Every structure is written in C-alpha cells, then in structure tokens.
Amino acid sequence: MPLRFVEPTPQAYQFPLTIRHLLDSALTTAADQEIVYRDRSSYTYRELFGRIGRLASLLEGVGAEQGMTIAVMDWDSHRYLEAYFAVPMMGAVLQTVNVRLPTPQIGYTLNHAKAAILLVHRDFFPLVEEMRPFLPDIKAIIAIMDGEEGQLPAFASGEYEAMAAEASPDYPFEDFDENAVATTFYTTGTTGNPKGVCFTHRQLVVHTITGNGLNGGSSVVPGFGYGDVYMPLTPMFHVHAWGMPYIATMLGVKQVYPGRYEPKLICRLRREEGVTYSHCVPTILQMVFQAADETGADLSGWKMNIGGSALSKALCAEGRRRGMELLSGYGMSETCPMVSMARPAVGETDEDTIITQLTTSGVIAPLVSARIVDEEMRMLAHDGKTRGELVLRAPWLTPCYTGDAKASDALWRGGWLHTQDIATIDAHGTIMIRDRLKDVIKTGGEWIDSIHLEELVAMADGVAEASVIAVPDPKWGERPLAVVVPIHGAAVTLDALNTPVEQAIAEGAITRYAKLERFEILDQLPRTSVGKIDKKAMRARYAETQNQMEAQP
C-alpha cells in the first residue's frame, strides 16, 4: 500500500519550523522578563521583539533581501541576540564572524560567504579598514559605537542604535520554507583556509527543542530551564554560542550578555544579576577561578557546561570544591554543536566516580545516532573499550562544507559525518573521546592517547596546565612530549611528571611507551581563536627543536 497523508482543511495553518516561532511563547509568558547587557543597559522581551523588527527594517533600508549574507563582528551582546533572530527571520543568512582569526582569514570568510552587509563593533574598525579594499561584495557597513561618543568611520552607512531608533519596529516577517539557510560560519581548521558550514531554520529549531529537552532530561545533572538566569561565556560567533541563546529565548528566561570577556566583570555580573547557568571552554573557567580568588567572589551554585576541550578531573574537582555544578559536553562546528552531555549514574554517591562520569564526553543526545567504526566503515563494539572513529547522524548536522565538494564528500563518507575523533562508546551510550586522529602518538608499535597522557601529567606536582604532543623520533617514529605551565613559583621535574604516568603504567591503564623522556615549560599554552589548545602550533615548534637536537654531534 502507498503511504498515507493527511489532507488538511485549506484554513489549517501550516506551521513551518522557522526561527521566528521560537519567540512565540516567550512573548506571551515572559514579555516583561529582562535582557541585560554588561552594566550598561537592560530591556524586556517585549522590547527585544520591537528591536528585532527595527533591525530588520534598517537592514532592508540599506539593501538587505532574502538569501543575502549579513555578517556580524561584535562581542557577546544584546545586539548579537537581535541579529540571531532578525537576520534569519527576514530570510537572509546570518554570518557570525570569528573576530579572533588572523585578518586575512577574516577577509577570506567574508568573501567566501559573499557577505553584503556588515555590522561591526568599534573595536574592529581597524580590521575593517584594512580589509575593505579586498571586500568587493560589501554594500553597507553599520557601525556599532556601543555607547561611546566619537565620529563614525568614513566607511559606515550609519550607527546601529541611531538607525534602529529611526526604523520601524513593525517589520512584516513572513513564513517561508523551513529548509532555507539561516546561519553560516567558518571552522578554524588545522590546515588551509577555514571551511564554511551552514544550518537551516529547521535544523536550528530541532536543535533548540532537543537541547532544551536534554538540559531537563535528568535529575542528576545541572540542568537549565524556567527560573534560571543565563549568561554565555562562549563567543556568540562560535557555533551559535552552543545553541543556548535560542534555548534561553524560547524559554523566556532572564539573559545577561557580558560583552568582551573581563573575568572580574563576569564575576560581578554573576553576583549582581543572579546568573545561574553559563557555558565555556576550560581556559575561561580557569580565568573565572583566578578572578574569584582576587575578588573574593562566591561561585557556589553556578551551573557550568564545559566544552571545546576536555574538562580535566582536576578542574572539575576544583569547581566542585567551590560549590559549582560542572559537567562536560561534546560537539563540533559541523554538528551545530550538540552531540552528547555528561551525566553521573542515578544514585551514585562516590565523589571520585561522579567526577569521572562528569568529565566523560557525555551520553548521546536524543535524535543522535553514533557509531565507532574502523577505516573500512565497519561498526565496532560499543563496549567502552574498543576504539574507532566516531561517526554521527542527527537532524541538525551541516550537510556540507560550502563551496568545497571534495571536503564535503570526505566529511560524509559512507553516509555518516566523520568527526575524526577516536572514541569509545559503552553500552549506555556514553562517549569517551580518546584523541583526535591527528593527535594520536604512534610509538613503539602502539598508539598513545595524548588526552589520557596529558590528564596524567596535569596531576603531577607543580603543574597548572599541560598538553602532550607527538614529536618525531628516529627510533620509535614518534615520542610524547609534555608541554607544561607550572604553578606560580613551583619547580617542575621530569620525575614529578612521570610519577602519575608510572602509576598508570603499573595499573595497566596506559602503555609503558607513555613514560616521558622530555618536557618543555611555557608561560602559557598557545590557543586557537576559539580557546582550544593549539597542538598544531606546538608540534611545528617542537618538531623543529627535535630536528636541531638530532643534528647536533
């Protein structure tokens, strides 16, 4: 028999899954709820909707139309939130520009996306001035003065707030196909130019609904919902700030936007505005700890989702000692980003076990299909031990790298999205990322997980932060090199670094080839534009050092 379909009455509303509808319930249930920007301004959800309309009207006034790419260069702000809605709601495509990339790469992403209108914070005026001769598609630039006096740059078509004040709040937002592209941004990558990913309205709405369910789906993890106060500590240019602004707005909760990250201000906003939920990378969490120590800020009760890099057991334990509720999650730029979120077993009371469970890569989210596979795409056992590449399917995964068919085919080889992460999956669906394919250390005929080894090194006396990379070795092919940041005033020795490593070797938790022969000390580890440890930079630096050592007589 053929498939059966409903024949709706002509008067039935065909509800498209578009971003506009994420506002519907909040405007009814939370119209007077606050949205706060730093210590400078606040307004209600009712005013947010009016400002979304004003932004769409002013963009139309400078030539915006459906399908056009409109780019934003700003810090985490209420203006960015307005753009998250206004731009896709009018049928245009929002490009969230990674302002931490090198200037030539920023220019590349704007050109590749064919951005036609640019909203730019005054902090980035010099970058725009430098790039302008190489941005032929830009038709208008809206300056964001952020409350500061001063003359507008010559390239500006006007100032954001002044133009918004003159624009109509009653923009006629209309329904359209939910499969229209809503957002685009660019992965940082490890080689070559950044790669563009894109997401449709339908994907973002499904991601929002599922993420909301995941945050409230367990009684044993710090969830997010009605009554919480939200403050992002992940850049809004990076993977939709992990999708949380859409969830927060859909729920109608109080939102606090910190602008440019200043750790002491973040702690003050947290106290004064009653922030209960944030998300960030481990580096930002460490900055918050330091600011709290300097100011005496109380961090207890603050729920924090950590991603981007692995949440170490030591960092998790330190947060819990301060009364915070921490957990890790896993995702990628290509995955919108939600894939999994950690949760301890129901009824678990042992603190060490809870920390171990909170620092996994998490249990797969609803609607996510996950496998680990070998190089021939054969499915491997989900026994928590067998390792393979993690591959995924979900309704919100990017369908391609825009304009790069070869890379897109590799990303989706065999009909599954390839993460290039080596992982295990256990019988309960808990993912544990063991390493990146490119970061695995191949030595003595065995593979060493750099993530596992650097967790051990981070436990050593005198170590504040650690990373482990592979360096060339004429005998073994590769050997591990620990790069450490010492605790202020502490002396780090090779014996101290090897103490936890040797214990793990004795317990059979790691191969004997993991024992360190060398280490290097840095004042700080190099970072990528999104705050991850830049192992590529360290490999290049210390491979050269290794070559020089081998060349010595």
Structure write-up:
The chain is globular. It folds into two domains: 19-431, 3-Layer(aba) Sandwich (Rossmann fold), CATH 3.40.50; 441-551, ANL, C-terminal domain (GMP Synthetase, Chain A, domain 3), CATH 3.30.300.30. The model has no long low-confidence stretch (mean pLDDT 92). It contains 16 helices and 25 strands. The chain has 553 residues and is an alpha/beta fold. Helix content is 31%, strand content 23%. The longest helix is centred in the first third of the chain and has 17 residues, at 45-61.
Q: Overall pLDDT, averaged?
A: 92
CATH architecture descriptor of the largest domain: 3-Layer(aba) Sandwich
For this structure, what is the CATH homologous superfamily of the largest domain?
Answer: ANL, N-terminal domain
Q: How many helices does DSSP assign?
A: 16
Question: Strand-residue fraction?
Answer: 15-25%
Please report the first level of CATH classification, the CATH class of the largest domain. Alpha Beta
Placed side by side, the strands forming the largest sheet appear as: 12-13-14-15-16-20-19-18-17
Task: Give the terminus-to-terminus CA distance.
Answer: 80 Å
Query: Over the alpha carbons, how many angstroms does the gyration radius reach?
Result: 24 Å
**Sheet with the most strands, sense and barrel status:** 9 strands, mixed
Helix content: 25-40%
